[in-house]
Amino acid sequence: MYKTSYILLSEDNHYYSVPYELIGKRVKVEYNSRTVEIYYHIKRIALYSRNYTANGRTTTAQHLPDNLQFMNEATAEKIISWADAVESCTKELDYDHC
């Protein structure tokens, strides 16, 4: 089974993120008609407004590892800026002239 940093609230078939460091750990989920709370041991690690969208995902960006945070926040402008920071010719389309 593929493990992610999301738990599934099966009643609504909706996913909520948890910190990626807890992948594979057992968490406790408490919910009511308005909120979803997620605990690890006795510490609350996430609080969400309940979302009833089937197959949807509710995500806190800080819960994802850095590489996924980068991809989730990626825009063409951010990727071009990142490429330019690596080396100016990295952002060029014609690599033969670098």
Residues in helix, %: 10-25%
Major sheet: size, sense and barrel closure?
3 strands, mixed
Task: Count the beta strands.
Answer: 6
Question: Structural class, judged by helices and strands?
Answer: alpha+beta
Tally of domains:
1
Low-confidence stretches: none
- Report the total helices: 2
Report the average pLDDT across residues.
83
**Biggest sheet: strand arrangement:** 1-2-6
First-residue to last-residue Cα separation: 44 Å
SSE succession:
EEEEEEHH
Approximately what portion of the residues adopt beta-strand conformation? 25-35%
Overall, the morphology is elongated
Radius of gyration: 19 Å
Which features would summarize this protein structure in a list?
alpha+beta; three-stranded antiparallel sheet; three-stranded mixed sheet; 98 residues; elongated
How would you portray this structure in words?
The protein has 98 residues and is an alpha+beta fold. It has one domain. The strands form two sheets. It has a three-stranded mixed sheet with strand order 1-2-6, with no helix packed on it. Strands 3-4-5 form a three-stranded antiparallel sheet, with no helix packed on it. The chain has helices spanning 66-72, 76-86; strands at residues 6-9, 14-17, 28-31, 35-40, 43-49, 57-58. The longest helix is centred in the last third of the chain and has 11 residues, at 76-86. It contains two helices and six strands; from the N terminus they run ββββββαα. The model has no long low-confidence stretch (mean pLDDT 83).
